[in-house]
Amino acid sequence: MIPELQQRMLAAFPDATWGPLVRGVREGITLADDVVRNTPMLASLLGRDLKGQIRRVGVLYRLQQLCTSGELPFAAEATKMPVGAWHWLDIRSGNVLAHVARTETADAMPQDTTNRQIKYVKNQYDLYEDGKVVPISHVIAEAKEFYCFLTFGTDRKGGLTHASLGMPSSENDEWLAFAKLERRAQAGTAAPADAATAPNPKDKIRFREHVQEMLADKQNEADDERSA
Amino acid sequence: MLGDNPAGRGSALPKVIPERIREAREARGLTAEGFGELLGVSRAAVALYETGQVGPSPDVFTRILAVTEQPVGFFFNQRRRKAESAQQPFWRSLKRMEQAARARITRRLEWACDIVDYIEAFIELPKANFPPVEWDHEQGKDDEIEVIALKLRDLWGLGRGPIADLVSVLEYNGVVLVRETVACDDMDAVSRWQMGRPFILYSAEVESGPRVNFNLAHELAHIVLHGGVEVTSDNLPRLERQANRFAGAFLLPRDTFPLEVVSTSLTYFKTLKERWRVAIAAMIYRCKDLAILNESQVKYLWRQMNAQGIRQREPLDDAFGHVAPTMLRTSLEMLVSHGVQSKEDVERAIHLNPADIESLGGIDPGWLTAGKVIAFKPKPRLRISDSA
């Protein structure tokens, strides 16, 4: 993990967006499962083989909707994958590009398959320019684009098992930056992240002035007695 | 009516306030006839006591104390509140709800007002914070209700998302909330303005958080839209429809909620319920109001809810913890814990049975009486009225 990259990723996908992000994923899964459940062909044994794909479409569709409506402050566009005729959703926040991928566990790396292609942006930089070691902060500042994954997983009933954000290393199967998102929105009974903060009525309950003065006098008398 | 004392003719208890006898009776949910039976006098005698034409004898008065469970001081002290300073409460149904139940709950609201009146001598409570509203309940359009609901959200800084804790929001903005057992199937909540402050009494028997939210928002509508409106059986259905529209508009704003309705399945509405804390049924009505769903879709959803047996009790009804009102409780506890008033002072000044003060104030039972010797109260005896 590289702190500078972690910072960069969290600046692009700040804490405040995690709730709506996870919500989008969950709603997308629900949408997809509705389609499967209500379409006899898809609900059949053969049709259920496509469930994962349909959930993927549901998630991408819903996230794109949230970005278009402004509930998520990102630009989202469905574009063609590099290989074949499949599409994915480019989610951009500043110079960070994210793609959505299903994974088996919260911190697993996405697997590169025909329909789960991954595209690493390799940060090519001459680390020994002028014979000096270039600090990582300099490298990061100079990079034109960063790449992230929004990963999610589901259980058999369609419940969200995890949702994470990670910045992959270009060479090894490891995360250079990583955050678990589901802690906020997955617990269904917790207040939604974008719900209005509940004010505390106690903040507006106070003694009237004459009572405050009386209490202050009492306190002074008690202090005097103690000091006498 | 043996032993009764015609008022002004050497009555042993000339200062009993007749209206207080009626108030105490109604607060116990008793009809004049039932009260008379418990006192061992006729209904006519009860009417005489309550209008002040005859004062109760010491013996009858002792039984009044026992039946009503109110302290002696209750019957001898005037309240500061004036009947004309309170508007008629908003009942969901004038037909279904019994008169005695309505009278009982109205008295509870009045007593809550008495407690607030007492507290406010020492403590500043949140002021009623409402926008100026111009609303014609006879001619007003639904669109205006939508605008007013959003205006209130803006004033209260609620944005356009879900409201997770409506109880705190209301109290923070000066609404006095009382949550207690109402023992009445046809009443979930009732509200009215009293002495310049809005009060809502809502049923502790309704445990579903989303339903409580809608009930509170519905009462909020009456507070905002219908202050000063005289409720009649003719205009009540219209006022109720307006209140439901407002509740939907307030809890599910028209510029955000529709963006999230992307499926018409019950499973999806369950997801929305988890987020918006509003019952699925209320969301279906809201979708109908906003023309997100057409008639057939709505009917289909109702059929599905019936088929799944979730029309009365929905999924997630128990999923969200209940937030208890804190304003009255905090205030009373502050008075005692800072030594401004003792528990005895509280009881004496409010002139109510301690259990009533505790229940209305949302305080644990026994808070006022803990460690005290309970005064002996004779049990009422039933007997045939002498005048019957």
Strand line-up in the sheet with most strands of chain A: 1-2-3-4-5-6
Instruction: Name the shape of chain B in a single word.
Output: globular
Question: What's the count of strands of chain B?
Answer: 6
Secondary-structure element string of chain A: HHHHEEEHEEEHEH
Order of the strands making up the biggest sheet of chain B = 4-6-5
Overview of the molecule:
The complex is a heterodimer of chains A (228) and B (388). Chain A has 228 residues and is of the alpha+beta class. Chain A contains seven helices and seven strands. Chain A has a six-stranded mixed β-sheet, covered by helices on one side. In chain A, helix 2 packs across helix 4 (51-69). Chain A is extended, with a radius of gyration of 25 Å. In chain A, 33% of the residues are buried. With 388 residues, chain B is mostly helical. Chain B has three domains: 1-78, lambda repressor-like DNA-binding domains (434 Repressor (Amino-terminal Domain)), CATH 1.10.260; 119-307, Arc Repressor Mutant, subunit A (Orthogonal Bundle); 327-361, no CATH class. Helix content of chain B is 46%, strand content 6%. Chain B contains 16 helices and six strands. Chain B has helices at 18-27, 32-39, 43-51, 58-68, 99-119, 142-155, 166-172, 209-225, 236-251, 257-260, 266-276, 280-289, 295-308, 327-337, 343-350, 354-361; strands spanning 5-6, 54-55, 123-124, 176-180, 189-194, 197-203. In chain B, the strands form two sheets. Chain B has a three-stranded mixed β-sheet, with helices on both faces. In chain B, helix 2 (32-39) packs across helix 3 and helix 8 crosses helix 9 (236-251). The longest helix of chain B has 21 residues, at 99-119. Chain B is globular. The N and C termini of chain B lie close together (9 Å). The model of chain B is unreliable at 6-11 and 382-388 (pLDDT under 50). Strand 7 of chain A pairs antiparallel with strand 3 of chain B.
